[in-house]
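Listing S7. Sequence submitted for prediction.
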Amino acid sequence: QVQLVESGGGLVPAGGSLRLSCAASGGSFSNRAMGWFRQAPGKEREFVGGISRSGGGIYYGDSVKGRFTISRDSAKNTVYLQMNSLKPEDTAVYYCARKAIGYYSGSSSPPDAYDAWGQGTQVTVSS
């Protein structure tokens, strides 16, 4: 069974950058699309972005377009989320998720399209 482990979160001032990593082990990764989500206290989970199996198709949520970049390294079984120009409203717990077989695109999909989730990493942006 795959295990997803996020890392790289922390406290950063507004305008700063962070790079999150999501390392997969114990299951398939390279043949699966992946997604990043976030959830702030009292708010619904939000789609941040996703990447297709090949890495050729990348999608972003409207609130992060132009600031965040998703990439993947299949040799390392890792997907990344580079976050630049961070804002206080980016403060949240960030989760990576693996899409189930049959979901090839990196676009946002209903929760049941994802069959594995990481435990999350906290990102806090100070004003």
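Caption to Listing S7: primary sequence and predicted structure tokens for the chain studied. The longest strand covers residues 18-25. The chain has a mean pLDDT of 95.
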